[in-house]
Write a structure and sequence with these properties.
The chain has 205 residues and is mainly α. The chain folds into two domains: 122 residues, no CATH class; 71 residues, no CATH class. The chain is 65% helix and 0% strand. The protein has twelve helices and no strands. α2 runs antiparallel to α3. The longest helix is centred in the first third of the chain and has 16 residues.
């Protein structure tokens, strides 16, 4: 079970982590401008059971012109009737490096859909912003999704220079389920966190 959880989390984390830096520009040389109906059909196909169909749909959306694709993905991620399409649309949206994605990601932090919350946590791990640490800390009291909480703790570790985050993550290392504790320890190691209780969590490893 633990290996399956890690694999699922890494798949989402790797996809979103490929988002270009804030200075990057979506390459115009690869963009095309399909009819709006064709773009919407591709987005709808992101939730198809057939894997080749899903893959082709994702490729078509990624290659679409950002002026068309971004608004369509924002709408799909926010209100599509298929929860899996919402998830895939949010992942693809993160790849366009459009500032409008930020609001959708922030809203997704409170989504009942655990996949959307996972993508949002990973987004704010790699796109740090002032004030987000406080919001993520509040999520520690409510986020208990088995596949989601590791993404939350990694996002918090990215804000490890915040004393409140240091205190919270140090406490998490010393209590709770081994699965969650392991995710915290790994995140602290990846971000080389200098926590206020460093010797304690080092011993807990």
């Amino acid at each position: 079970m633990r290996s399956l959880i890690a694999a699922a989390f890494m798949a989402v984390s790797w996809t979103v982590a490929q988002t270009p830096s804030s200075s990057a520009v979506h390459p115009p040389s690869s963009s095309v401008q399909p009819p709006a109906s064709g773009l919407q059909a591709a987005i709808n196909n992101l939730g198809k059971f057939d894997e080749p169909t899903r893959t082709a749909a994702a490729k078509a959306v990624r290659r679409a012109d950002a002026a068309q694709a971004v608004p369509a993905l924002i709408e799909a991620a926010s209100s599509h009737s298929d929860g899996y399409v919402r998830f895939k649309a949010l992942v693809l949206l993160s790849g366009f490096n459009d500032p409008r994605a930020r609001e959708v990601m922030a809203t997704s932090l409170d989504e009942p859909n655990d996949r959307l919350r996972t993508v949002a946590y990973v987004y704010f791990e790699h796109n740090k912003e002032p004030g987000m640490a406080a919001r993520l800390l509040k999520k520690l009291d409510t986020e208990d999704g088995e596949f989601v909480r590791p993404a939350l703790t990694r996002a918090l570790a990215a804000y490890g220079d915040d004393p409140a985050v240091q205190k919270a993550l140090s406490a998490l290392v010393l209590r709770g389920q081994d699965l969650y504790r392991g995710a915290v320890i790994e995140a602290l190691g990846d971000y080389h966190a200098a926590t206020t209780r460093k010797p304690a969590w080092r011993r807990a490893c």
